[in-house]
């Protein structure tokens, strides 16, 4: 059965390879209407997340964000499949690095670092461009797929563009390796952690939020600076991304504050363009354990979208 699923997956990739972007986005619009107006995909989860995150917004404003979210979700989902067939030249044309000089300076100085990102706009193409545009040796951490055939195809495809995917179960081992070249460890780190007791709790989007402790843990242990990857859609099917410093001297921060600084950057990005984040995820399914304190984000008041 898994091999049959893999064959269907490869046929889908082949179909999208032939599909021009103009027709891809017509299909995306159709799917967005279907998911939002007919199926109501995770409608209750999305509405609940938005209401708690933006209590100052009207029902009409929240409805507009939700509508735009479905379009973003369908765009990035189809783009992810299309990405398997894009050439090096095409992906670089559509996913541009706007401050490459900073990355080159870090590389030339021999500085490895951790790059953190959120599920904002098209992070999937970032796993391709990370290998093409970072001069560092890139590691990307991911959750392996259940289907071993599709998972192997995914890893081999990313390796074609220099990205080395590492199972999240092997994160500690990866950081412990002796690296001979400057390295970037890319971590999408805004998902809900599996263990609330080990999490840092941050006041994020008006809610007590459990956050992954991994990026901060490894940054402190290896004395690696942390940079934030900011991904912006410039037009449909075209993106720009860059990096900005989150923290370099971690010893000056209290435990959990590094994570709070990352989440602050993400929150500011979400507030400006709320429809581009992954609202269908059950992000706030855990409750704050007794006796745990919450780190408040500073100067993160919401603005109108």
Compile the SSE list and pairings.
Elements: H1 2-18, H2 21-39, H3 43-53, H4 59-82, H5 88-94, E1 95-97, H6 100-108, E2 113-117, H7 124-133, E3 137-142, H8 148-160, E4 164-167, H9 171-176, E5 183-188, E6 200-204, E7 207-211, H10 214-222, E8 226-235, E9 238-247, H11 257-272, E10 295-296
Parallel strand pairs: 1-9, 2-5, 2-8, 3-4, 3-5, 6-10
Antiparallel strand pairs: 6-7, 8-9
Q: What is the gist of this entry?
A:
By secondary structure, the chain is α/β, with parallel strands linked by helices.
Q: What's the shape? A: globular
Number of domains: 1
Enumerate the spans where pLDDT stays under 50 for 5 or more consecutive residues: 300-305
Give the ordered list of helices and strands.
HHHHHEHEHEHEHEEEHEEHE
Main sheet attributes: strand count, strand direction, barrel closure: 7 strands, mixed
Report helical residue fraction.
Answer: 40-55%
Main sheet strand line-up: 1-9-8-2-5-3-4
Tell me the Rg in angstroms: 19 Å
Provide the residue-averaged pLDDT.
Answer: 93
The total of beta strands comes to 10
Q: Gap between N and C termini, in Å?
A: 45 Å
Number of helices: 11
Structural class: alpha/beta
**Share of β-strand residues:** 15-25%
């Amino acid at each position: 059965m898994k091999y049959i699923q893999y064959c269907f997956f490869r046929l889908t990739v082949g179909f999208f390879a032939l599909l021009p972007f103009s027709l891809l986005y017509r299909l995306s619009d159709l799917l967005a209407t279907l998911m939002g107006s007919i199926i109501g995909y995770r409608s209750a989860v999305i509405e609940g997340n938005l209401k708690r995150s933006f209590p100052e917004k009207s029902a009409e404003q929240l409805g507009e964000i939700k509508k735009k979210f479905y379009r973003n979700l369908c765009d990035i989902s189809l783009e992810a499949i299309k990405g398997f067939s894009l050439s090096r030249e095409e992906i670089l044309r559509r996913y541009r690095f706007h401050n490459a000089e900073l990355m080159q300076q870090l590389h030339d100085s021999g500085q490895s670092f951790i790059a953190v990102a959120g599920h904002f706009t098209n992070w999937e193409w970032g796993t391709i461009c990370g290998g093409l545009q970072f001069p560092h040796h890139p590691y990307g951490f991911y959750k392996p797929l259940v289907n071993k055939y599709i998972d192997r195809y995914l890893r081999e495809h990313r390796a074609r563009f220099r990205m080395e995917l590492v199972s999240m179960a092997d994160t500690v081992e990866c950081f412990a390796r002796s690296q001979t070249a400057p390295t970037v460890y890319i971590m999408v780190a805004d998902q809900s952690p599996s263990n609330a007791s080990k999490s840092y709790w941050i006041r994020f989007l008006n809610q007590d939020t459990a956050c992954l402790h991994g990026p901060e843990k490894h940054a402190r242990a290896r004395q690696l600076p942390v940079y934030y990857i900011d991904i912006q859609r410039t037009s449909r099917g075209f993106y720009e991304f860059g990096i900005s410093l989150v923290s370099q001297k971690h010893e000056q921060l209290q435990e959990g504050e590094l994570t709070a600084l990352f989440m602050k950057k993400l929150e500011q990005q979400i507030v400006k363009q709320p429809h581009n984040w992954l609202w269908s995820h059950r992000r706030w399914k855990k409750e704050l354990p007794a006796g745990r304190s919450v780190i408040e984000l500073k100067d993160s008041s919401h603005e109108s979208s």
